[in-house]
Amino acid sequence: MPGPTAGSAVPVGRARTLAQVYRHFGEAVAAGTSPLYERVAVALSESGEALRAIQAASARKRHPAVILAALHDLALAGRAPALAAAYAAADGDAAAGAAIGTLLRMTDSVVAIAVRRRVRAGETGRCAVLYPAIAEAARRAGADAIGLIDVGCSAGLSLNVDRVGITYSNGQSLGDPPSPVQLSASIVGGRPVPARAMPEVVARVGVDLDPVDVTDADEARWLRAEAIGRCWSRGRLLAWLADS
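Above: the chain's sequence. Below: its structure in token form.
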């Protein structure tokens, strides 16, 4: 769990209440990346009824990323139409109200999804860092072909690092320009991004105790649901992989 942010009222070394956990998630984790999730998480933190419903899940399954993903999964599955409509309209206030309403009305379903599922660590956005790092490592090793091994690969998204297009804040581009998956990344600091193209990838090996089959509609929907509503490129990559 991330530590308290500057200005937080929670003393260092003291456990947060569930309300504080959700407010911190909204204001410090989702802020700047998902305005919808920021608004929903804060609204949940302010609703006593919602917090009591969340407590129906075991302590390890009460984390905002899990509960919000379970709600999103219900929306994507067509079981929470009001929440789905609010998300589609990018209406934060409507999403907050619909999320609380869905949680109160479908507590058992939300908890059941949270218990059955786990949030995956794989993230398409990592390719913006992995691509230049792998390309530079290959250059230093003098390799003209490489193999990729990903331990904890989830759906294997990072194994397709060479198949996405990446545009950096300095205007530099790497990867595959016509790819249906396009990422953008901001450069922080003064060090340049290596500009070398990645060599040919001749092997892709994923190792995972519970790998995800992206051709399974339920599995693919969950990956979209737990992507915290911000990585649309990940959804495109899932669809692309399922069709390839």
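The first strand starts at residue 145 and ends at 151.
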